[in-house]
Amino acid sequence: MTATVAQLLRILDRLAPPRLAESWDNVGLQIGNRDWPVRKVWTALDPLPEVVSRACENDVDLLVTHHPLIFKPVKRIDCNSPLGKIAEMALCGRLAIYSAHTNLDSVAGGVNDVLAGRMGLHKLRVLAGPADADMCKLVVFVPLNRVKAILDTLFAMEAGRLGNYACCSFRCEGVGTFLPGSGSSPSVGKTGALTEVQESRIEILVANADVSGVVRALQKVHPYESMAYDAYPLTVRDNQAGLGRVGVLEPPLPLDAFAERLKGALNLPTVKIVGKADMLVETVAVCSGSGASLMAAAIDAGAQAYVSGDLGYHTARDAQQAGIGLIDIGHFGSEHPVVDVLAALLRESVKAAGLSVTVEPVDTESDPFHYL
After folding, report:
1. In-domain check, residue 368
2. Quick one: which of 28, 24, 100, 31 has its CA closest to 335?
3. Phi, psi (5° rounding) for residue 206?
4. Whole-angstrom distance, CA of residue 248 vs CA of residue 62
5. Is 270 helix (H, G, I), strand (E, B) or coil?
6. What number of other Cβ atoms are within 10 A of residue 208's Cβ?
7. For residue 92, is pLDDT > 50?
8. Pair (256, 210) in one structural domain
9. What domain count does the chain have?
10. Binning pLDDT at 50, 70 and 90, where does residue 132 land?
11. What is the CATH number of the domain that holds 46?
12. Are residue 137 and residue 229 in the same domain, yes or no?
């Protein structure tokens, strides 16, 4: 069965729910058409010109990257600009580009869990709580003989996801009343006559961003001329998701020995270290990407060492005064391991969905920094 971009997006949104993205982020489809067919997918860290060009040359239909192609609002697409050249290549090659960024950082099994696993950490917990997941409880009222059609539509739209569970809903029965007015065309009852109908009240969780689309889909299968529904805003917290991780190193190691282990595990030419080489490290906090803002959380978590990328001078001075070791493994080094893992997860998911799609990680990316 030939897949479409829309089908792959639904799978990707399950692997890294967009609701877990930070408010400043821009995740999801960056460029492309949801109706385009997809036979080949590549995963990469960055939508670089050379990656996009090579993807087009190899007839790739969907490029899934960690870093977004578009971060800030764009006022114009100039094909002579770096962004414009990439957009032109992608559109001419019918290459859709999708980003899973801070949502992939936060989700269980995402970037931070992959990194912590490479580091050999155990007993993992979230370093910084997840962003509030903006959700709605959607309530719809439907006659008993159409309950299945409504539930099938809701589940097909990926409504009703709760943690690792899908198709979660609640319903109870009651009596609905309505009086069709002049000009109405009721499917049940008569104009001008008060009508009572045995109905089911269905409750289900829906992401705020998806409410409009779900309601439109329900209206197509709902028998009533005017579908009665409510949408109640909720705040849902997933205790398994969030930025960074804290774990235990077994057995504990001196800071310099732990840093040497990281170099080997992540294939790094060098790391930057702050702290006494012989200080014993047992509890480790880690954050992929640029993690300076979470150092205070690492201290509060009781970590003897904090591992991240893009750690600057003032962060290093703060660490010295707090007595916590720092290991800067670089932005690229902290995130690139997820490229292969994401390809494997996506490959497994498309196979389970019965879709004929090949998924491969890009193998030509490298750290932009060179070390002498």
Report:
1. no
2. 100
3. -140, 135
4. 38
5. coil
6. 14
7. yes
8. no
9. 3
10. very low
11. 3.40.1390.30
12. yes
Q: Does residue 47 surpass a pLDDT of 80?
A: yes
Do the beta carbons of residue 180 and residue 189 sit within 8 Å?
yes
Q: How many residues does the chain have?
A: 372
In terms of C-beta density within 10 A (0-12 exposed, 13-18 middle, 19 or more buried), how is residue 148 classed?
exposed
Q: Which two tokens stand for residue 39?
A: 């036979």
Does the CA dihedral 46-50-53-55 come out positive or negative? Answer: negative
H/E stretch holding 144: none
Residues 252 and 345 in one domain: no
Give residue 120's domain range: 111-130+241-329
pLDDT tens digits for range 243-269: 999 999 999 999 999 999 999 999 999
Q: Note the pLDDT of residue 234.
A: 75
Tokens standing for 300? 């509060």
Report which of 167, 151, 166 is spatially closest to residue 221, judged by C-alpha positions: 151
Same domain, 309 and 257: yes
Residue 369 lies in a domain: no
Evaluate whether residue 251 is within a structural domain: yes
Check: CB of residue 4 under 8 Å from CB of residue 36. yes
Is beta strand 170-178 parallel, antiparallel or unpaired with respect to 195-207?
Answer: antiparallel
In 3D, which of 64, 235, 278 has the Cα closest to residue 137? 235
If you search the block for the tokens 């904090």, which residue do you land on?
Answer: 306
